[in-house]
């Protein structure tokens, strides 16, 4: 069965601190995709990144970076120099064909609070 | 367009009333997914469609929930005889090739 675990329920940091959000996944599929979404207080889901299982290169986009490690089944997300606008709930998600019939399996989310 | 349009944005129903939510997927996307999110917590998968066919309905509470995706019409999710516990935000997503686009959600409040 497929599963996504975000063990950190809530994280609170002071502005300009770096913060890492953890994501561990389980799947029997060899081909799968991993995602991160941001859900700000306004409620919409904002797509951040998609990674496929064959591409283990780390990715950086501005202050955001992602570390994908198949050996530990992890896809962690780091925000460098956090800002108040980063306050949101962040969801990690997994999709594969055989195990999940293409639906996104979400983790339970990590609420990030960035204090000024 | 490149947006998934969900209507209405907000819906208030008395307990026992019917609720119907709509989702217009992106043209060319073969898959549509419905999710329920209670209190900004976990996303519960309800049902998916491949074109107009039910693809996976493992998450649907069968007794009161039903859904359709008909050609040339928005997809719909209907809840008969709503209960207080149905209060949630319902998200629709359409997908092609593992790219998922979510609508902005419908907030259903059952009073």
List the helices and strands and how they pair.
The complex is a heterodimer of chains A (116) and B (111).
Chain A lengths: L2 E3 L4 E5 L4 E3 L2 E3 L5 E8 L6 E7 L6 E3 L2 E6 L4 E6 L8 E9 L8 E2 L3 E6 L1
Parallel strand pairs in A: 2-12
Antiparallel strand pairs in A: 1-4, 3-9, 5-6, 5-10, 7-8, 8-9, 10-11, 10-12
Chain B lengths: L4 E3 L2 E4 L5 E6 L6 E7 L5 E8 L2 E4 L8 E4 L6 E5 L8 E9 L2 E4 L3 E5 L1
Parallel strand pairs in B: 2-11
Antiparallel strand pairs in B: 1-3, 3-8, 4-5, 4-9, 5-6, 7-8, 9-10, 9-11
Structural key phrases:
heterodimer, A: 116 residues, mainly beta, six-stranded mixed beta sheet, four-stranded antiparallel beta sheet, 0% helix, globular, B: 111 residues, seven-stranded mixed beta sheet, 11 strands
Describe, in plain words, how this protein is organized in 3D.
The complex is a heterodimer of chains A (116) and B (111). By secondary structure, chain A is mostly beta strands. Chain A has strands at residues 3-5, 10-14, 19-21, 24-26, 32-39, 46-52, 59-61, 64-69, 74-79, 88-96, 105-106, 110-115. In chain A, a hairpin with a 6-residue loop joins strand 5 and strand 6 (46-52). Chain B has 111 residues and is mostly beta strands. Chain B is 0% helix and 53% strand. Chain B is built from no helices and eleven strands. The mean pLDDT of chain B is 94. Chain A binds chain B through residues 33, 35, 39, 43-45, 47, 50, 52, 89, 91, 95, 101-106, 108-109, and chain B through 31, 33, 35, 40-43, 45, 48, 55-56, 89, 91, 93, 95, 98-102, 104-105, 107.
